[in-house]
Amino acid sequence: MLESITILIIKEKLSDIWRVIKKYWQFFLGMSVAVIFFILTRDTSKASKALEQFRKSSKDERERSLEIQEDKQSDIEKAVDEFSEDINSAAEDLSERSRQLEEEKERIKNELLEKEEKERGSIAEEISETLDKI
Fold first, then answer.
1. How is the chain split into domains, by residue range?
2. pTM, full prediction
3. Would you write out the chain's pLDDT as a tens digit for each of its 134 residues?
């Protein structure tokens, strides 16, 4: 019973649809002709060309990205090398200055000892003069 009611409802809906199609048959005919025309005249080569263009541009973009990344990597390596050279240079300068200071201290010490040998108490006088200046 339920099946027969379902069949009747479907039949009624289809007859309503058929009435609309009969009433507006020119519109549906025009639409069907246009659809058939577009199906027959579509150019699949344009779609494949567009897809190929997309693939090519994606590949180019990937290559440019890799080049940029390589450039940045080389710039970073160059900066690290320059920084390392600067640190080494600064360390050499520091050791040179330390050596010069040690030589200067040794020279001053030797001068004071020579002066002390010539005149007893000269070191004490210089120390007191330095303390007075401070």
1. 1-43, 63-134
2. 0.42
3. 778 889 889 999 999 999 998 998 898 899 999 999 888 877 667 778 888 898 999 999 999 999 999 999 999 999 999 999 999 999 999 999 999 999 988 888 888 778 777 777 677 777 777 777 76
